[in-house]
Design brief:
heterodimer; A: mainly alpha; 3-stranded antiparallel β-sheet; B: 8-stranded parallel β-barrel; 38% helix; globular
Chain lengths: 289, 287
């Protein structure tokens, strides 16, 4: 064979092998099994000895590797669904979005949008042992997992030091948020659940926590260990939200206007503390031109 | 027995400069090691990282690796080069690989004699090809090019495989040795993989070992494996090295040692002292 014939022959083999790898596993028995009857005869004929069983090793390996990466990237979502049901959804997602990049992390991107777009109805089946999961909790969990991943994978960002700017510049120009910062508002106590489940290797669906009486906010940011979080007071969360769109001076004035008379008395001291916390934890990377 | 056996290897050339002590012992760096490592900084040879884990933009992995590099030599081992795809090598991938190698001043870089994707898909697995002469030239050209791009020694690792192809016209070790020779690159010889494939395909692992030119071995890998219910051995890296692999390692050492030796443990990863104790067995086994 010349080079072009060799490459054409190789392309044909690799196309067939790739199709076999992506053959979905069958979960109808309650466990994920290779569907060897779906393997294409030409590839089976090209393999010596125990072709179906040996090719099934690759087929299973493909899916188990990807499903493990999905479980690791969407830990809260996975535990709320239970691993079996999570894997069903993850496999369906990966059939529609087969991996294309060498970075395994990229296979996980968009699963939250997939859940939002393709899950119908208000609740999600979790099998006979567990009550159905309200879709709103699942989507909130997915958005939290996505935020953790986004903060972790953000590129290095410059350090913001307010001492490099005049008071006038700081008051009149907008702070630029770090790509390694996420603000989350939750209606169920899911961030605490995510941490509580961190060392729990169970594959069962986690119990659904009760809804909070009022939504609460968190900031996720990077620290030396990876991703850290801090719960935000309502006015603190509002300040950080205002700072995304307004210069510091305007944001402080608006916050003061929105605060109750009782809260207004301590607001100057609190805002100094909250801004110092943000600077110390690199919530911002600089100020806009 | 598949294909043809090679005769004894060519006379030894001057051993490749590996940038590590010839008998160094190393460990595959994995996330669960970090807490112990950052507290104790144990004294041992060197680390090997999975290249792709550090080629992205994420800042925490880069920061951790920079701390580690301050104290240890770090070699790079890739799983995404896709050397034997029908498609060309990815320049974007190679650019990122070279940047990381330069940043770490890696003594050497390795990847696998396999393909990992085609037709726009990345399968994230190390996949076999038929062993035919036509693919030797393709693989050797690309391996040579990668080594040139890297500007440092590049090693190819032999696969664990679960299928063999009826179109193969030569043994795996003949294919492997000819690619390395024609590319002018190096071996990243995985002893566990030789054992796994020898059991799955019924060839003699010692014939494989005798075919290797040890002057071109950058490093040897050791790992554990598991057995499927049907008897197929799968390269799981989830347990200690088995006695049969230690025996093969001792035979390789006798044939061509010293060479740097690295333990891979990728699943059910034990505490770092346990992994280091397993690695230390290498010194005992080779005597």
């Amino acid at each position: 064979m010349n080079r072009s014939a060799t490459e054409a022959w190789l392309a044909d083999l690799q196309r067939r092998f790739g199709e076999l790898l992506r053959t979905p596993l069958d979960a109808s028995s309650g466990t994920f099994r290779a569907q060897t009857s779906r393997y294409a005869p030409p590839l089976l004929a090209a393999v010596q000895d125990h072709a179906r069983e040996r090719l099934a090793v690759y087929n299973r390996q493909y899916w188990f590797r990807l499903l493990t990466v999905m479980q690791t990237s969407w830990p809260l979502t996975a535990r709320l669904l239970g691993m079996f049901h999570f894997n069903l959804h993850a496999q369906e997602f990966l059939l529609r979005n087969a991996p294309a990049h060498y970075d395994l992390h990229t296979i996980t991107l968009g699963f939250d949008r997939y859940l939002a777009d393709y899950l119908h109805g208000d609740s999600i089946d979790r099998g006979p042992r567990d009550p159905a999961l309200p879709k709103a909790i699942l989507l909130e969990a997915a958005s939290i997992d996505a935020a953790f991943a986004r903060v972790f994978h953000a590129p290095p960002a410059p350090t913001f030091d307010p001492r490099n700017y005049t008071p006038s510049e700081l008051a009149q120009r907008k702070l630029v948020s770090s790509p390694a910062l996420a603000r989350i508002e939750e209606r169920w106590p899911l961030i605490e659940l995510r941490f509580a489940l961190r060392d729990d290797i169970s594959e069962l669906a986690a119990a659904v926590p009760s809804q909070l009486t009022a939504a609460q906010c968190w900031a996720l940011f990077r620290n030396a260990q990876g991703v850290a979080n801090v719960r935000l007071a309502p006015l603190q969360a509002r300040l950080y939200a205002l700072l995304e769109h307004s210069p510091l001076g305007e944001a402080l004035a608006q916050l003061e206007g929105e605060a109750s008379p009782a809260a207004r008395a301590t607001l100057p001291e609190q805002t100094r503390t909250w801004i110092a916390l943000g600077v110390a934890n690199a919530f911002w990377v600089g100020i806009a031109d | 027995m598949l294909g043809t056996e090679m005769n004894a290897p060519a006379p030894k050339q001057a051993a490749v400069s590996r940038g590590l002590p010839a008998d160094a012992l190393g460990l595959g760096l994995r996330l669960p090691h970090y807490p112990y490592l950052f507290e104790h900084w144990p004294e041992f040879g060197y680390f090997e990282v999975i290249s792709e884990n550090f080629m992205g933009d994420a800042e925490p992995p880069a920061r951790h690796l920079a701390r580690i590099r301050e104290r240890y030599s770090v070699v790079m081992h890739g799983v995404g080069l896709n050397l034997l795809s029908h498609e060309p090598l990815s320049d974007a991938y190679l650019d990122a690989l070279c940047r990381l190698a330069d940043k770490l001043d890696a003594p050497f870089v390795s990847d696998h004699l396999c393909w990992t994707g085609s037709h726009g898909y990345n399968h994230h697995d190390l996949l076999p090809v038929p062993y035919v002469p036509e693919l030797i030239e393709l693989a050797a050209e690309r391996a040579h090019y990668v080594q040139q791009r890297l500007g440092r020694p590049f090693g190819l690792e032999n696969l664990s495989s679960y299928v063999s192809f009826s179109e193969s016209s030569m043994s795996e070790w003949e294919f492997y040795t000819r690619v390395v020779q024609e590319a002018g690159c190096h071996y990243m010889l995985d002893i566990n993989n030789i054992y796994v494939s020898s059991q799955n395909h019924g060839f003699d692992a010692h014939s494989y070992l005798r075919a290797i030119d040890y002057a071109r071995v950058l490093q040897v890998h050791l790992a554990g494996h598991s057995r499927e219910p049907d008897g197929t051995i799968v390269d799981t890296h989830d347990r200690p090295v088995c006695d049969e692999v230690w025996q093969l390692y001792a035979a390789a050492w006798k044939l061509g040692g010293p060479f740097p030796t690295l333990l891979e443990w990728d699943s059910a990863i034990p505490a770092m002292p346990v992994a280091l104790a397993e690695l230390a067995r290498a010194s005992t086994v080779r005597g």
